[in-house]
Write a structure and sequence with these properties.
Helices cover about 35% and strands about 10% of the residues. It is mainly α and about 180 residues long. The chain has one domain. InterPro entries: TniQ.
């Protein structure tokens, strides 16, 4: 597989599906499913952390496959557990599939850190997908919902940053890091 003409740096603790989505935006492709189709990738395999899919994604995006694998959520063979970062969670853990939450300070730092199009700069940290996590471990701010979710099926998660109300940066308040 060839490397994409435009790439983005894999973010620290970025979920593989979000990396795929940012690559789509960076390459002016309307959504991650279209890019996945072009790359002969199964989106569900990327989301589920399948090694072969992550290897193809790493190659296309010039990323470290091991880093992608560390941040992937993978189910157990019988579907009773979820694994993330070598931690085993029961199926009772809730993943926020219907809402994107961000740390406003991380979001702002991501926007300021790169010089390519703004829509492809911010990224969601994989552990923010776990609904029981309520605060940013770095900034101790409450994770704020990003506006406009769920998007129409043709849009990527990254496209939300185009319409996202940056007001969420003003509305978050510090919380103790152990707050739930």
């Amino acid at each position: 597989m060839k490397r994409l003409p435009l790439t983005v740096p894999l973010g620290h603790r970025e979920a593989p599906s979000d990396f795929l989505s940012r690559l789509a935006v960076r390459n002016c492709i309307r959504d991650m499913r279209t890019l996945a189709h072009d790359l002969h990738l199964d989106v569900q395999a990327v989301i589920c952390g399948e090694s072969a899919a992550l290897a193809r994604l790493a190659e296309a995006g010039a990323a470290d496959q091991a880093a992608l694998e560390r941040e992937a959520f993978a189910g157990s063979p019988r579907g009773i557990s979820i694994f993330h970062r070598a931690h085993k969670f029961s199926r009772t853990i809730q993943l926020t599939r219907n809402q994107v939450r961000i740390c406003p300070a991380c979001f702002r730092e991501d926007l300021d850190a790169q010089s390519f199009q703004a829509e492809a700069r911010p990224y969601r940290r994989a552990h923010w997908i776990i609904s029981q996590i309520k605060t940013c471990e770095r900034h101790h701010l409450a994770l704020a919902p990003l506006g406009g979710w769920p998007p129409p099926a043709s849009r990527s998660i990254r496209a939300l940053s185009l319409r996202a109300p940056y007001a969420c940066c003003r509305s978050s308040r510090p919380r103790p890091s152990n707050a739930r």
